[in-house]
Amino acid sequence: MPVTDVQQDLDNLTLTITADFAAPVERIWQVYADPRQLEKIWGPPTYPATVVDHDLTPGGRVTYYMTSPEGERYAGYWLITAVDAPRGLSFDDGFADLDFTPVPDAPVSKNVYTFTPHEGGTRATYVGTYASAEALQKVLDMGVVEGTSSAINQIDDLIAS
C-alpha cells in the first residue's frame, strides 16, 4: 500500500496524505497529466471516475464524475492554480452538480500535490487545506480519508500495468 501516513490537523485546517511509489517522479506525474490514467485512480475503486474536461494549465479546469455501484453520479471539479511538471500541481477541488457547476455550500479544498524522488521511487505528498474546521470535519465525516487513501492505493496497480 503506497499510503504511508495520514495527518488530520483541525487547527491548521489541513489533511495531509503521504504515499511512496516504486516509480520515478515522471511516471507519477503522468498519472495526473493523462485523463485516461487519472480516471483509473481518482475515486475509490467502487466509485470509478470519468474525466470529462482536463486542462492541466494554470487557470484550467478538470471536471469529472464518479459513479456509485448503484449507478448514481457524483460530480466534482478542479480549478488549476499552479503546475510544476513533473514535480507537482496545485488546484482547488470542489463538488459540482452534474452540469459541473460548483455547489455553493459544499466544502472546497486548496490542494498542493508534490512529487519528489525518494529511495529510488517517488514520495507523493497530498495536502488539502479547507476554509474552516467545519468544512474539514464535513469531508472527514464523508469518508475522505478512506476514499482518498483507497484511490491513491490504486496507483501501484496502474503503474505496474
Automatic annotation (TrEMBL):
CDD domains (alphabetical): SRPBCC_CalC_Aha1-like
Record domain Activator of Hsp90 ATPase homologue 1/2-like C-terminal: where: 22-159
Family the entry assigns: Belongs to the AHA1 family.
Stated name of the protein: SRPBCC domain-containing protein
Lineage: Bacteria, Bacillati, Actinomycetota, Actinomycetes, Micromonosporales
